[in-house]
Design a protein that fits this description.
By secondary structure, this protein is of the alpha+beta class. It is built from six helices and five strands. The protein has a single domain, classed as Alpha-Beta Complex (Aspartate Aminotransferase, domain 1). The longest helix is centred in the N-terminal third of the chain and has 21 residues.
């Protein structure tokens, strides 16, 4: 419990950093030619942006997702990242990359995946506290490699 209380003391600062980095990464991904779509409520282009502006103060969290073309392309991106950990949890101080169609939603068939909003090319990121430019460089080489 002592560690939990110690962690709570700095939670607002960490969340601001998670959110700032996630927005910067979402903006980068939105401009990348190999990215079909970015889901992050902090982006002006996101359907939930008006709600995020109204209800979420201080940033929109460190969680975002983006779509590349296919299942295989998504797995290639995951395989090529070097700084992101390939695990299915979220909210860590280390950045995490996940392919929901083959992990958290693997029990669903194609139609159920689509109904759940999970395309085969969807990649989920939980942005940690690393330097944002390092994470963008890692995503750049993974998308272009």
């Amino acid at each position: 419990s002592w560690l939990f209380i110690q962690g709570l003391e700095h939670l607002p600062l960490r969340m601001k950093q998670h959110s700032r980095s996630a927005l910067e990464i979402a903006e980068f991904l939105e401009q990348h030619p190999k990215v079909k779509k970015v889901n992050y409520p902090g982006l002006k282009s996101d359907v939930n942006y008006p709600y995020a502006q109204k209800y979420i103060k201080g940033g929109c969290s460190g969680l975002l997702s983006f779509e590349v073309g296919s299942y295989d392309e998504a797995l290639q991106v995951l395989d090529k990242t070097e700084l992101f950990s390939l695990v299915v949890n979220i909210g860590d101080s280390k950045s995490i990359i996940t392919h929901p169609a083959s992990t958290t939603h693997q029990q669903l068939n194609h139609e159920e995946l689509i109904a759940a909003g999970v395309s085969e090319g969807l990649i989920r990121l939980s942005i940690g506290l690393e330097d944002t430019s390092d994470l963008i460089a890692d995503l750049t080489q993974a998308l272009e490699g």
